[in-house]
Design a protein that fits this description.
Length: 346
């Protein structure tokens, strides 16, 4: 059986026409799927029974079941979902007291192999998620945000399990549906995709009609350090990545976010900050500094608070916009992949 909730508006319209039905039924079905987030053809009450029967004879909904949730003292909630093949993924509702954001996964595991990442260390790589599995996370988090916080989910970050640009085709299709006012209706300014720095994926990303925000994990001031902690560097060299980011055609109101995970004793010194400032000159960007959380699957240490503040101060003194990302969900296996690994008994 094919999955109905992996399809675009045009694909659904074509199905309806092939069933010898009026084409406007396609838009009605699309709205039921992605605006109302129904999980059964029987719930599509303005669709004729005969058409619902035709659909159910050839199509089904993506299997997606919540199996566990953990609530942090800061209000963030991590969800573990089981997929049709028995694999598990994580999604998170992040609450910082002023807004709710949804953190979305794009793969079961990740093949990038970043040395400090719980997903790489604990789960490895299994497969990429379908469009339906990506969208099902958003639908589940949106429903939970309304039920638990009495708030609408307006912000999405693709920073969960997996490398989004390693699943670029399904990501782009999901984003198109998420941005459609007749579907999920998110603003492109409220969605951020995070990448470890796949250059080919970044180029494809900026070919999108309405590109959302991009965050790029740099995490090092030079090639040697980056290659030692991020194997993706071996095929996506740092200087090539920096040049790509300098050359992208950005909306005048947007900036690329450069993410820098500070690892104690590895990349967090004042000398590293000075080198980093020289590296990123010419990129229209803001910087998110992330103090490493720590993980039972990693050997790296959390940097000292003094080093984090010193790093930020140097960037600010060099006219760069630099924030220290607030740590959320530390008491609920906050790093991506930890909950899935624990569930699997890794």
């Amino acid at each position: 059986m094919k999955k109905i909730d992996c399809l675009s508006a045009e694909e659904i319209k074509e199905i309806v026409i092939n069933f010898s039905e009026q084409s406007f039924r396609g838009r009605q079905i699309y709205n039921w799927l992605y605006h109302n987030n129904v999980t059964s053809f029987d719930m599509m009450t303005n669709i004729p029974v005969s058409l619902r029967e035709k659909l159910s004879s050839e199509y089904e909904f993506t299997y997606f079941v919540e199996v566990k949730r953990l609530t942090s003292s800061d209000g963030s909630i991590k969800f573990l979902f089981r997929l049709e093949d028995g694999e598990s993924i994580e999604s998170v509702l992040l609450s910082d007291g002023s807004r709710i954001s949804g953190c979305i996964s794009t793969q079961v595991g990740c093949r990038m192999g970043c040395k400090f990442c719980a997903t790489a260390g604990a789960v490895g790589f299994k497969r990429s998620l379908t469009v339906g599995e990506i969208l099902a996370q958003v639908a589940a988090l949106r429903k939970s945000a309304e039920e638990l916080f009495d708030e609408s989910l307006l912000n999405l970050v693709f920073m969960g399990m997996g490398e989004p640009l390693d699943n670029i085709d399904n990501l782009k299709k999901a984003l198109t549906i998420l941005l459609d006012d007749e579907a999920f209706g998110f603003s492109h300014r409220k969605i951020t995709v995070s990448t470890s720095g796949l250059i080919s994926g970044i180029k494809k990303f900026f070919q999108m009609e309405s590109p959302v925000n991009l965050a790029v994990s740099i995490n090092a001031p030079n090639e040697k350090i980056r290659a030692s902690i991020m194997p993706v560097t071996n095929k996506n060299h740092l200087n090539d990545l920096i040049q790509t980011l300098k050359n992208v055609d950005l909306d005048k109101r947007k900036r690329i976010t450069l993410e820098y995970v500070l690892l104690g004793g590895v990349n967090d010194s004042l000398a590293h900050a000075k080198e980093f400032v020289q590296l990123i000159k010419g990129i229209k960007a803001k910087i998110n500094l992330i103090s490493y959380n720590g993980s039972p699957y990693s050997k790296f240490k959390t940097p000292s608070e003094n080093n984090v503040l010193q790093f930020q101060e140097y960037l600010i003194n060099n006219n760069l916009t630099a924030f220290i990302r607030k740590k959320l969900g530390q008491d609920i296996a906050g790093a991506c992949g930890q909950l899935a690994a624990d569930y699997k008994g890794v």
